[in-house]
Amino acid sequence: MPTFERILLIGFAQLRRYGHTRVSWFNKLHRGLIQNGHDVLFFSDRDVAAFEAPFGWRDLGRGKANRRLLETAEAFEPTMIMTGHADLITDATLRRLKRRHGVPLIDLNNDPLFVPSNVERIRRRAACCDFLFVSTGKPTLDEFFPDFKDRLFHMPNPVDPAIERFDVSQQAGDELDRDLVFCGNATKHTRREQVLRALKEQLPPDVRFDTFGLFGTPAVWGRAYDRVLSRSAMGLNLNRDEGHAWYSSARMAQLAGNGLLVITHQDNGFQTLLPEDSAVYYADVDDLREKIAYFAQADDERRERAARTRAFFHQEMNNRLYAQNIVETAAGQRFSHPYVWLEASEPGRV
């Protein structure tokens, strides 16, 4: 019999984007917790800070947002508190929540460890939180954070069937607008623009390749992003840096969940997590170019692999299982499901 929780979820709800939202792993967590039967109250730190600040200037509302969070917790009486990238909420405020309510306090981090400021963020949160979940694989996490590795866990990027609702693996390539797509506009801590530029120059001219957010093409968000994915055969999961155990941006779940053939770097080790003959792995730019050109022509194999990857994500790495694992870990409950990211052998782990 599951134990249902009153969960105070602290993060960014993107209220002031007014529909032009990014696909959010945190919103997927929110939905998964509710679907699993928990009573969840979402406190959006950035939106509250802006709403409470003079002239809507968010930085002037930091202190008020922290006070409103303490006030919210007093009223809601949570049995569990989760926070994810709520950078306006101070460590001192989290310590006060812990002292006042005495409930499990969980920090969730979906950013990479090759960004130094994120490593420092995790260390700071470890000093005031009971459990930490990070999107990098456990072996790499243990190397970075040996002092609190017993409280540190890997979390995957999940799909949500209501969000990743397309299935282009069921469509022939010539029915779609493009063979390959890459969406992303981050330029710090990365050399991936060089890879993309090489592909633009070297791919066969009949390979229809679009990039959104680079080379003068505007980025796409919200429904525009949905439309791009729903009309693309393959998706390039090019991270800002490669070679980190089981690390990927949330892009990978978005591509896989919508039935695009996922092409990703071999050094992140997803071969040990995903089924055989599902995603496509490349070693370098030349290998990447050859595989893109091959699968642009091998449409039946593209569709078979993409369908296999999509089914795996929707069955084993969905938002309900993802949320359930976090709650069961923090509550000290026996796992109710053989979570694949715990059962599989991670890169570097014997």
How would you characterize this protein structure?
By secondary structure, the protein is α/β, with parallel strands linked by helices. The chain has 2 domains: 6-158 and 318-343, Rossmann fold; 168-316, Rossmann fold (3-Layer(aba) Sandwich). It is 39% helix and 15% strand. The strands form 2 sheets. A 6-stranded parallel beta sheet has the order 2-1-3-4-5-6, sandwiched between helices. A 5-stranded parallel beta sheet has the order 8-7-9-10-11. Helix 9 (251-257) links the parallel strand 9 and strand 10. It is globular. The two termini are 34 Å apart.
SSE layout:
Layout (H helix, E strand, L loop, with lengths): L5 E6 L13 H11 L3 E6 H8 L9 H15 L3 E5 L6 H11 L3 E5 L6 H11 L4 E4 L3 H7 L7 E3 L23 E6 L8 H11 L6 E4 L9 H8 L2 E6 L13 H7 L3 E5 L14 E3 L2 H13 L1 H18 L2 H13 L8 H4 L7
Question: Could you name the key traits of this structure?
Answer:
single chain; 6-stranded parallel sheet; 39% helix; 350 residues; 13 helices; Rossmann fold; 5-stranded parallel sheet; 2 domains; globular; alpha/beta
Summarize the structure.
The protein is of the alpha/beta class and 350 residues long. The protein has helices at 25-35, 45-52, 62-76, 91-101, 116-126, 138-144, 192-202, 222-229, 251-257, 285-297, 299-316, 319-331, 340-343; strands spanning 6-11, 39-44, 80-84, 105-109, 131-134, 152-154, 178-183, 209-212, 232-237, 261-265, 280-282.
